[in-house]
Amino acid sequence: ADPRINLGLLWLAVGPGLLYLVYLLRDCTLLYKELVLISVKIRGKMLWQALCVLEIDNLNRRAVFITGCDTGFGNLLALKCARRGMPVFAGCLTDKGAESLRSSAVGLCGKLETIIVDIGSTESVAAAAKHLEQATEQYGGLHGIVNNAGIVGSTFFDDLLNVEQYREVVEVNTFGAIRVTQALKHLVKKTRGRIVTVTSAAARLGFLGVGPYTVSKFALAGYSEVIRQELRYFGVSVHVVEPGMFKTPLTAAENIETKIVACYSTFGSSRADLFSDAYFHALTARFPHLRYQIGTDCKFFILPISYLPTGARDALFAVGEMLLWVLCPMPDPRFNLGLLWLGVGPGALILVYLLKDVAFIWGLAAFATIPVLYVLIQRALSGIELEDLSKRAVFITGCDHGFGNLLALKCARRGMPVFAGCLTEDGAEALRTAATGLPGKLETIIVDVTFTESVAAAAKYLEAATEKYGGLHGVVNNAGVMGCTFFDDLLNVEQYKEVVEVNTFGVIRVTQALKHLVKKTRGRIVTVSSAAARLGFLGMGPYTVSKFAVSGYCEVIRQELRYFGVSVHVLEPGVFKTPMAAEGNVKSRLDQMWDSAPEATKQDYGECFFKQSRKRLAWGLGQFGCSRLDLVIDAYFHALTARFPHLRYQIGADCQFMMLPMSYLPTGLRDALFTVGEMIFRVPVPECA
């Protein structure tokens, strides 16, 4: 990979460097050591500030394309770039917006040209790409793409929304950015340039009443994670801007539908220049950041909270709602057990105070017992089950085979009434045969989660069938597909949509259709996400986007449904050997994708690269995939039946000891570790890299 993109490898020198410094200072006095360390910190900060202001040269030869330039941040950025002499191609949705921008740009030293483009239309983006192909020839291609266009969409509790309202926002905010990036990144490769994408602070946390927007931004964050890994082979860097609340036309009072978001917008910053400055820095700095957190709310509230345990995060949200009085009814106290997290800090201080007259060794022993007690109490609580499982009905999707099939049988084995959603008659018949003689009643329902009519029919049937149980105790969103798995260059938007339709919209469709039955029993919604919802891996674009999106959806509805006594639980399994990840299925999907790829793209990557990648991927899934499917089934069952279920379940050694810790690392360090891993495992490199 291009060494410019691997500056993150410097992170790997930090640990050894500090140890070496400590070794060199071993004979110095304590005061001198402290002075040296303070000096290192000050010099590091000064060096960082000096590097941040360095700009690349020849800005007048570096063309950029910016979407969403009618108003707001895109408009301001286009004018700023033109003011600095850069050639700007400004994508506008309307002629009126384009005309206004051209009028504002009169007299600026940079050339500004407007292009009418609707990023929600593949044809419109293709026409813009064709024009840019010729227009940027004199500049050697595009230096940068800025994916700025976006909408807020419908803003209210998920109970009052439908899948189409989610699709409308995802079509612009997620698929629009994918569409533009795929159409234009070959021009960015020519200049070894940059792709800058705005996600949001909403891509870190789920807030009440902004489900569609959150889902779209989570998905876009996942896409950026994947292409950042892939495009560094071509010298292209990918940068993400995460703004907090800003006062723009997007969040203007007349464009906001609910009091909830209106409340959020009152805290919005009016410093739009912070946003345009971050965009401009990502485009023009010699050493740009990989991520930009913008706004006080994002830096000092949303970002720190996003790293907290889920229970502690929910507790802080609950306290915030009490203080702001956003909603009158108080949430069910059972779901505010996370408030106990708020007692950890004061509790530790009280313990220190109580131990003030105790010998040091006894104080140390007291603190050493805390993790032991934690493990013992956690295990004791985890083993307590709900009573009357025979009266707690559950509905599970994707029961033809794999996790859903095994979970349905386990629930029936424990006497629970099970309604198993299957896609095919063959799968349903095989499951009924396997369940013969089990104490729990198991009934199959043919349902396709991608069709609203099919889900509605299943919901209507379940309405009557679960009446004797008082409703559904649990809904398990298990159905999913892997989709196409290869570099984004060989994929198209439709292949992303296929996977999102099942893994994301399928979950939303089932949850919306059935959660009124779960509210009756104050039950649970359990959804399988993935370790891929934490990290972006090479060649896993569609799957990663869909799982990031479903994580965002669960973040939002967890906040909303606790008012009704319903808890939401997420499973994040690593790599497991299921039919979805079977070697034959993976190779078959890859072959179909390669056969349908454009000839020019095939030449860029090379037949040899494809064959090696195909072989390595199949080998990797077989080598590192866990065959202990019971771990996932036990997690599912625990989430359904435990009196004190976890909010999140990380399953598999790869998820617990690699993916989870890595997801908390700085982006540059994470990329560096990926690079080292690719070197160790000799990951193939595209021919034109």
Structure description:
By secondary structure, the protein is of the alpha/beta class. It has three domains: 249 residues, NAD(P)-binding Rossmann-like Domain (Rossmann fold, 3-Layer(aba) Sandwich), CATH 3.40.50; 65 residues; 212 residues, Rossmann fold (3-Layer(aba) Sandwich), CATH 3.40.50.720. Helices cover 52% and strands 10% of the residues. It has a seven-stranded parallel sheet with strand order 3-2-1-4-5-6-7, sandwiched between helices. A seven-stranded parallel sheet has the order 10-9-8-11-12-13-14, sandwiched between helices. Helix 3 packs across helix 10, helix 18 runs parallel beside helix 20 and helix 21 runs antiparallel to helix 23. About 1% of the residues have low confidence. Keywords: Membrane, Oxidoreductase, Transmembrane, Transmembrane helix. This is Dehydrogenase.
Question: Can you tag this structure with a few keywords?
Answer:
26 helices, Rossmann fold, 689 residues, single chain, alpha/beta
Q: What is the name of the CATH superfamily of the largest domain?
A: NAD(P)-binding Rossmann-like Domain
Total number of helices: 26
Computed CA radius of gyration, to the nearest angstrom:
27 Å
- Overall mean pLDDT: 86
- Tell me the name of the CATH class of the largest domain: Alpha Beta
Can you tell me the overall shape? globular
